[in-house]
Specification:
Layout: E1 11-12, E2 16-17, E3 23-32, E4 37-39, E5 42-46, E6 52-54, E7 61-66, E8 72-78, E9 84-90, E10 97-98, E11 106-111, E12 117-123, E13 152-153, E14 157-158, E15 164-170, E16 201-203, E17 210-216, E18 222-228, E19 241-245, E20 251-255, E21 260-266, E22 272-277, E23 292-297, E24 300-303, E25 320-322, E26 325-332, E27 335-341, E28 347-351, E29 356-364, E30 367-374, E31 377-384, E32 391-393, H1 398-402, E33 410-415, E34 421-427, E35 435-441, H2 455-462, E36 466-471, H3 480-484, H4 493-508, E37 512-522, H5 524-535, E38 541-545, H6 551-554, H7 564-569, H8 573-578, E39 592-597, H9 605-618, E40 622-627, H10 634-637, H11 640-657
Length: 660
């Protein structure tokens, strides 16, 4: 795979299945280099395996959800200023009708049980900010007064002056006579150039707190939402669940702030289910958090899955009711498998293997439709029966990508010097070698490499490198104890594991040249790369990307700085220094390319610039590559041209310091 081949990587979003199980709708997305953005549309596929047709032709259509009777699809489409707005279209196809004109876009939405209303969340700008006053540029706005410990978020920017609020709006009648008035704005200063139905938008919440996600109760009288409260003095990851009356008559606390809630779902009989973790008495115990499935009974949460062995915390995971049971996604050994969980906590594994359940599933009756990624495809739609035995791929988006010549990695497990097993993969070019070797390290640290197609590895293999990558201690998918083992001990067992895996991979494959090796990683992978090259000098070159490099300054700059470093490296200055790449930067002799994004608020730019400057001051060969306008997600969802330019820079660096 070449860098430009990212255009062939079509991912699929969470599907929505018609109530009678006769069809499903889903969204696709792919990078478009010419347009320099990700583009995608909605598709409809007949079940159990009929025709596939494109339902919309928007530039960036996402998140389809079917009305309760299956006749209408609500979805998000970017307007002419790139803001996601709520639209509706007939499930059989028609002209899409815009429902909202949110000044900063819509983030989440849900149908009510009758199909007559939609609830949604949208950020509401403080007066005078974010274009709410014509001609007032950002640099001319009034200063921001910050009194709490949180004020910004990666991928968003400032958050304290644009909280997400909850709204409801009547669903438009797609058969009615067209109305040519502009859609109602969520603020009097916002306007739209597009025509849309003039249904009244009703704001149900206000105040400084943000609201995350919406789902209706069974009777449709309330909207359930998670409240992201603003802390004045101390970070607290526990989040309350509230029910807001649709008629505007008030709200109630459904569950107090005892859990950190990721997702909320309502079963057909009204039972409320949660994906959530317990952050402990401190409210910030998030290391390997043990996300589990819970139900609320008599106002109290009851956990259904084992937090020590089942990990439901994959990004994008959600709950799907199926009969009296629930479908959830479990991370395990590089896979994300689909589980069916009963209300008594019985767990059945429905699907795993080389298929990774990407953005979840939906079900109608006993028919299940999943979004999956495989070793040869970035996204497909899979039909399962209720026990997961019979499966049928309904799409073949990976055929175009497979023509680029992807390599199937080989899984291995090695034992480190302390006997601990380290699981990972080797990907090699065709031929007998010997090939120079690149050790890749993932982010997180509570994340994982997996069996699905990974463009980072494929581009390097195409260039002639053997790539080895693993899930060391601290990673997700091997039990909670594995994930928590490096807490307060970063750079110890994780360093042992990645080096043991590199040595083991070289020993098992004679095509790998152990005398020509490089190392690279991003985020936590950037941390461990920087830490490794300060302690092991075998590497011909290194790439440190968007790294967690100085825990001491991270606390006051990162959007998660108020708790991340405290929980992973502790608060004692000596302990922090023992785990800090900046504290040992003077030991680095390896030529190092430092890559960072200008608007990265997760691992802020100062982490890179200070590390780079320290390398140069010592006399170590180093370069700094900064991408304007990008954040921490550059490699996954950044502008396609920047993604290509990043690949080109990486390959150029390795051509100098680790030539093929």
């Amino acid at each position: 795979m070449r860098a430009h081949d990212i255009e062939a990587l079509i991912s699929v979003g969470r599907p929505a299945v018609a109530p009678d199980g006769s069809f499903a709708v889903f969204a696709t997305s792919r990078p478009d280099i010419a347009a320099n953005r990700n583009v995608g549309q909605l598709w409809r596929v007949a079940l159990p395996g009929g025709s596939l047709e494109r339902l919309t032709r928007g530039t960036a259509d996402t998140s389809p959800r079917l009305s309760p009777d299956g006749s209408v699809v609500a979805f998000l489409r970017a307007d002419d200023r790139g803001r996601a707005q709520l639209h509706v279209i007939k499930a059989t196809g028609s002209e899409a009708l815009r429902v909202t004109d949110a000044p900063l876009g819509v983030s989440s939405f849900a149908w009510d049980p009758s199909g007559r209303r939609l609830a949604f969340t949208a950020r509401v700008p403080e007066a005078g900010r974010y274009g709410s006053v014509d001609g007032l540029a950002p640099e001319a706005e009034a200063p921001r007064r910050i009194t709490g410990i949180r004020w910004h978020s990666n991928g968003v920017g400032y958050t304290l002056d644009r909280p997400a609020q909850v709204f409801v709006v009547d669903a438009p009648d797609l058969d009615a006579e067209p109305v040519y008035d502009a859609a109602p704005a969520l603020s009097e200063d916002s306007a739209s150039s597009e025509s849309a139905p003039a249904n009244e938008v009703v704001q149900l919440t206000d105040g400084p707190h943000s609201h995350d996600g919406v789902v209706f109760t069974r009777d449709g009288d309330e909207v359930l939402t998670v409240v992201d409260t603003i802390e004045a003095d101390q970070r607290d990851l526990r989040t309350p669940l509230v029910g807001i009356r649709v008629d505007g008559s008030g709200s109630r606390e459904v569950l107090p702030a005892v859990l950190s809630i990721n997702d909320v779902s309502v079963a057909p009989d009204g039972l409320i289910a949660l994906l959530a973790s317990d952050p402990g008495a401190t409210g910030v115990d998030f290391v390997a958090p043990g996300v589990a499935l819970w139900v609320i009974e008599n106002g109290e949460p009851r956990r259904l899955t084992d937090e020590e062995t089942v990990d439901l915390g994959e990004v994008g995971s959600h709950i799907t009711p199926i009969g009296d049971d629930f479908l959830v996604q479990n991370r395990t050994r590089g896979e994300v498998e689909l589980l069916r969980v009963t209300r008594t906590g019985e767990v059945t594994r429905l699907r795993g293997g080389l298929e990774v359940i990407g953005h979840g599933a939906d079900a109608a009756g006993e028919r299940i439709v999943c979004a999956v990624a495989t070793s040869r495809s970035a996204g497909e739609i899979l039909l399962l029966d209720s026990d997961g035995v019979d499966a049928r791929l309904l799409t073949a988006f990976g055929d175009a990508a497979d023509a680029r010549g992807f390599v199937l990695p080989r899984a291995i497990e090695v034992s480190g010097p302390d006997g601990y097993p380290v699981h990972g993969w080797i990907a090699t070019p065709a031929g007998d070698g010997p090939f120079p070797v690149l050790l890749q390290i993932h982010g997180g640290p509570y994340a994982s490499y997996g069996v699905h197609l990974f463009d980072e590895t494929q581009v390097l293999v195409d260039a002639g490198y053997a790539v080895v990558y693993c899930n060391p201690r601290g990673s997700a998918g091997y039990g909670r104890a594995h994930g928590r083992s490096i807490r307060g001990r970063m750079g110890t067992d994780d360093l042992v594991d990645v080096l043991a895996f590199l040595d083991g991979a070289v020993a098992t494959d004679s095509r790998l040249d152990g005398d020509r090796v490089g190392i690279m990683g991003g985020s936590y992978g950037g941390y461990l790369t920087a830490w490794t090259i300060a302690h092991d000098h075998r590497f011909a070159g290194a790439i440190v990307e968007r790294g967690f490099l100085d825990p001491a300054t991270f606390q006051g700059t990162s959007d998660i700085g108020s708790f991340f470093g405290d929980e992973y490296v502790g608060t004692d200055p000596e302990a922090i220094e023992r785990q800090s790449p900046m504290a040992v930067v003077d030991r680095v002799t390896t030529p190092t390319l430092v890559i960072h994004s200008e608007l990265d608020f997760r691992c802020p730019l100062e982490q890179a610039t200070r590390y780079y400057s320290a390398l140069r001051r010592k006399g170590t060969t180093a370069e700094l590559l900064v991408f304007p306008g990008e954040d921490h997600e550059l490699t996954r969802s950044g502008r396609p041209r920047h993604r290509v330019e990043r690949f080109e820079a990486i390959l150029e660096w390795w051509s100098r310091y680790l030539p093929v």
